[in-house]
Amino acid sequence: MTKNYAIVADITCDLSSELRGRFGVDGALKGYMSTPDAKDTEGSLDLSDAELDAFYKSLKGNPNGYKTAALSAEEIASYFETFLRDGKDVLALCISGALSGTYNIMLHAAKQLVEKYPERKIAVVDSRKYSLALGLLVIKAAELRAAGLSLTENAGKLETIKKTVHQMGSVDDLFWVASKGRISHAKAFFGTIAGIKAMGDFDQNGLVTPLAKVSGYKKAHQVTVEYIKKTIKAANEQVILVAHSARREQAEILAKLIKEQIKPRDVIICNIYPTNGVNIGPGLCAAYYLGTEITDLAREKEIINEVVSGL
Q: Pseudo-torsion of CA 181, 186, 188, 194, nearest 10°?
């Protein structure tokens, strides 16, 4: 059967169980996180707003006290096997291989299992993204399966689609994100200045490249919406994800503007959970959507400069 395969992602997809259920995503692999009191815990995609607020408050006070780690190949293989035993193939999507070793670990796990289950297939897609950009790809994979694509067709299609996933929005502390290896053209661009918001989009490896800086959330939201208008494709067919790390009020404002001015199929406000929050820090408010193919970001820089100068 064309649809007889499971779609799973690693924990960095930031899709809650409610969203995974809503879009028919079969599961998310957990990772590990160590806390300042030296406790090792499993990562979670189902914390309450109060729990997330407490986490970001603690993280801000002790940014180096939290560490994350991926699952082992054996643990991933054990998870994949739960589907293989049920006669299902597996399509797995993971965080960018430029940011984590998860992709290679998944490939190793898949190789072990294919020898044990030669009649089954496991495809692993390096998203070249992270957080809700990966989450958006996972949702797209589920939609493509529902449209009848086979596992192989789906994986091939995602290789093209992943080049079109954009992020646009603001982050309060660029130095934080740069120090955690999530930004290209690293630390010297512009850092933390009161009221100044850094605006950026993904490069080909899933690192966010700063493209502009603006003053205040109001202007940041205006720039985000105008940038989306100029780079999105088939807006009315899309689900746009608006993600935030301890910036829910701003996420709600941005989501409202996107609904009114972009008019996509849906806009969903999403939390950034601790596994990504450790590396992003408090202060991100950004939209994730599908648009023009990203190559060297030259055109994107032109677009955002036009938008900023026009406001």
A: -50
